[in-house]
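quick one if you have a minute, typing this from the bus. below you get a single protein, a line of residues and a line of whole numbers that encode the local backbone shape. could you go over both lines and see whether the tokens make sense for that sequence. anything you notice is useful, everything is just below.
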Amino acid sequence: MIPNPKNSCAGNFSDWLEVHLINKCNGHCAWCVEKDGYHPKKSVSWRRIANQIIRHNATNIILLGGEPTLYKDLKPLITALNNTNKKVWITTNGSLLTPEFVKNNLSGIEGINISIHHYDLKLNEIITGVSLENLLPAMGKLQNVRFNCNCISGAIDSVTKIFNYIEFARISGANRVRFAELKNDTHRFVDLAKLFEHQYGLNDDPFIEGCNNDVKIRGFDVNFRQMCGLQTPLRPNPIDPQQITKKVLYYDGQFYDGWQKETKMEDKELIKILEDVASGKKSVAEAALLIDRKNQPTVIESTGGCQY
């Protein structure tokens, strides 16, 4: 199956490079897509990261984590990229943003995505584990700001709450909002197509009909990001999907084909090996070798052509 041409997995957003800058995060979002992600043991210098980015042909560079504002060499990295005409973007939970932090570390960025999952910042703190008490003063020092909101059952899960969030973003000084469905989380999943009765291009098969929609709601720029069957069992699973996988730069200085995750041997695999030993199908030595191999983290492609 061929994806909708405006989807990332179809090659859209080809002028963007995603950089997994740091594994560390000060939040505790329950749905975090990186909790099972690949975490290299090696970290290279910011100069090595900058050189790798510069040699890549993408113009737009988005710094991700973890929480990228925790990266101690953020300022020199951004400066080096600016000097080569790269456009630097950053996605953050906003917890470290103050007027001083913006001035000292984020000078020269093209734009910023701030992940805020409720317009009631006290509820957002419960959801994410981070306080945004200094955010509003910092907003005056930022430009090209998008608020990212995951729609979560029990939080932002109705049309009224989405409208309230849009007003919150407008009053706070953001330029746009992205509302996204949750990936691989069926318990807290909010179906945006059902919520809006299939308005705004929202649909039941985002792989075919498009997973990204830019619209205007009450005069405000809004993006809807839906999950297809490759990211949630609640949608049709594409048959033999054709995807374009993009490179992601990790903090070990290596480019990988898409976002990675680590998997280890499941209990049922271990039980099967032990049963084979008991029945004589495998020797103890063969079983030991298999267990040793399977217990080593295995890096696999986690999202195919779908980007962060």
